[in-house]
Amino acid sequence: MLTSITDSFLCCLLGKSPNSVLPLDSVESRDGFTFLEVKPGRVLRVRHHVPAPPPSPEPQKTPNPPQNPPGVRCKRRITLYRDGQLLIENLAAAPGTESGTSAGNGAEPGSDGAAKRKKRKAKKVVTVDCEKRITSCQGAHGDVVLFFIHGVGGSLDIWKEQLDFFSALGYEVVAPDLAGHGCSSAPPVAAAYTFYALAEDMRAVFKRYAKKRNILVGHSYG
Asked: Going from the N-terminus, what domains does the chain have, and what CATH number goes with each?
């Protein structure tokens, strides 16, 4: 076990891997890598990035705070005709639009289109009238973790662009090296690379880093 851990550390310090399966493009190891021992002697390299908490904004004094939060109103009539065409009409005026606008499949604008719609028989008419209140703004992802799992023959380094992108958006990201890949330990037995064995490794990774909401991004063979 100590030898496997030592080899993994040397791999990332020297920028090369002693394993037989290597990524196509070797990326120099940087900060943000940890080593997770999923089983005795079975160590996975994991890149785990936790975004820094955003600075708390200074409270703003409002003389008359609004009693009701802002809302979005949606009022539409959806008509399904017997010939399969669908007509959607906006019954309430929205900012920048006129009341009574419509959009549909095959509907012709203007008076001619309206006359044709009157001649057709509607199969079903549904009226939607709802208002959604906005109580919070998107800006915190403290309960979301994005897991990136590479395919056979690769490593977590293939996710570099995605990890940097979502980390910059404030998401917590986790990307492991599968056993025998990248800088993870490479057991010398074939049974260590079965689907069951790899799935158990990922189960240990999820148990270590999973939160309330988790999103899994995977890469197929190749």
From this structure: 18-49 (no CATH), 132-221 (3.40.50.1820)
